[in-house]
Amino acid sequence: MSTDPSTSSAASAEEQSNKRKSKKPKYSRFTQQELPAWQPILTPRWVIAIFTLIAIIFIPVGLAAFSASQRVVEVEFEYDSTCIPDSYKDNATAYIKDDATNKTCTQKLSIKSKMQAPIFVYYQLDNFYQNHRRYVKSRSDEQLRTPDKENDVSSCSPEDYVIINNKSQPIVPCGLIAWSLFNDTYKIQNNDKDLVINKTNIAWASDRNTKFGSDVYPKNFQISGLIGGAKLDPNLPLSEQEDLIVWMRTAALPKFRKLYGRIETDLEADDEIVVLIENNYNTYEFGGKKSLVLSTATWIGGRNNFLGIAYVVIGSISLLLALGFLLLYLLKPRPLGDPSYLSWNKNPGGLR
């Protein structure tokens, strides 16, 4: 019996067409999930060993971190209310806005424990929401990096342009973050000698080298009628204005510290230092607070008791669980995988 060649070729073409249209993946052990796999079985011995290992690691690390935190010497002085004259106690906002009044405030601080250099000088603000959505977005990263983008101020309103000779000129750096730059200043004396506050390398190197251009200079900054904070040196590129760089790294919480500088001289116990504060920054209008903080550092950084306590708590809980499972395993052992403990074997009548 002969076969029609035309029918055979049509069937072959249809088969090839079906192969082309098929979405079936090419067979492999990977796509079909047939590769060898290892699934750990958490036996009582493994569970006890894991919890014990966590305790052995976490408890010593936590104790070391807590001990390092306790060795940090810290002096904090809240001066927003102290540095207001008695005549302005009921109207601090009027005092801070009056350019004619003397804003210099002198205070004495006692050093209770020896502070070894470097001593970090911070300013601390409270009730200042740098994480507000509009505030965080009010900046132009392109403008900060390159001079060709000085007109890239679309996200900086209302601090985007200033009118000069009836012409709109871009503000560099633009935006509310730069406009509100902290402008209180500190001078510290010990035994009638000025302590040098080193303000170099206080910002992250990555920020200085990549986010702020070495050929971008301040332009038309803080010259409008409403002055927000500190002014910038128009002869210094933004990459060298580290106070601005530190301020532009916005804080996540309403209470935060930012590095002002470093003192490279030791302070002995019972020293009495004199702090001269230029109280310029307006926190009174929104109920904020300002503090000056002197702090040393250890391998863990500044004072942070929470980290050490958290490690110790987690390690202690793991140790208690390990001991509990160990006692249960010793007092009431049972064979691994015993089918008699299955619910339908313990109560066969319940399946009817």
UniProtKB/TrEMBL annotation:
Residues 1-28 are annotated as: Disordered. The keyword Transmembrane helix applies. The chain crosses the membrane at residues 46-66, 309-331. Pfam families: CDC50. It is found in: Membrane. Keywords: Membrane, Transmembrane, Transmembrane helix. InterPro entries: CDC50/LEM3_fam (IPR005045). Belongs to the CDC50/LEM3 family. This is ALA-interacting subunit. The gene is ALIS3_1.
